[in-house]
Amino acid sequence: MDYRENVPLYKIVLAGDVGVGKTSIFQRYDKDRFIEHDDSTFGMDKLTKLLTVDGKQCKINVWDTAGMERTRSLTSNYYRNAHAVIFVYAIDDSYSLAVLHNWVQDVDKDAKMALKFLVGNKVDLADESSEVDKKQAELFCKNSGLHSQYHVSAKTGAGVKEMFYDIAKLMVHNTKAAHLNKDVFAIAENEDSKTTKSSNCC
Ligand SMILES: Nc1nc2c(ncn2[C@@H]2O[C@H](COP(=O)(O)OP(=O)(O)O)[C@@H](O)[C@H]2O)c(=O)[nH]1
Ligand SMILES: [Mg+2]
């Protein structure tokens, strides 16, 4: 489908420390699979999905860091024109939540218009090794101006699809998001030939 058709496209980027599960969330959403791996440079790139939200079609363009956060080489281009940023921490690692304030600062600089979300990944480990309690996460959301929070497991798939759908729904109803669209269309057209792309309708 051509991006110039009248289907809004929303850029959603994943942010957060190495090892929290960004690539795994991306893959779970992309291909509904989980690949156990130890190599944190293992990374994906971008995907596009077509969704129908409240009877309206939209596309979401999800970006993964592809391991660039390891060398702190994430450029402002990564965040530029993002409609939404999902800050990921792992529920078994309280440090991964603590460091997110650095990421929020970058986003506030490079993607001022973006809506910000928090997601606690690895909820499948909640019984054995949960380190972050609900209150801590809530406080972080409040102090950092985040819109809302989710809990998911890339391993089991719990909550992943629902999170992206919910964010897409917020984008569809967010009038500010419409202003960014022209630029994101251009990015998507440029990237189209070299990205991981799938178009699944939910
Ligand atoms: N138990 C569990 N492990 C996960 C989950 N998501 C990712 N992992 C593991 O966490 C490690 C880091 O995942 P990765 O997706 O590479 O994180 P990234 O560096 O943020 O992209 C890998 O060993 C994954 O197998 C999850 O939901 N549950
Ligand atoms: Mg990764």
Automatic annotation (TrEMBL):
Coiled coil: none annotated. GO terms for molecular function: GTP binding; GTPase activity. SUPFAM superfamilies: P-loop containing nucleoside triphosphate hydrolases. It comes from the Eukaryota. Gene3D superfamilies: P-loop containing nucleotide triphosphate hydrolases. Keywords: GTP-binding, Nucleotide-binding. The keyword Nucleus does not apply. The keyword Zinc does not apply. PANTHER family: RAS-RELATED PROTEIN RAB. NCBIfam families: small_GTP (TIGR00231). This is Ras-related protein Rab-30. It comes from Acropora cervicornis (Staghorn coral).
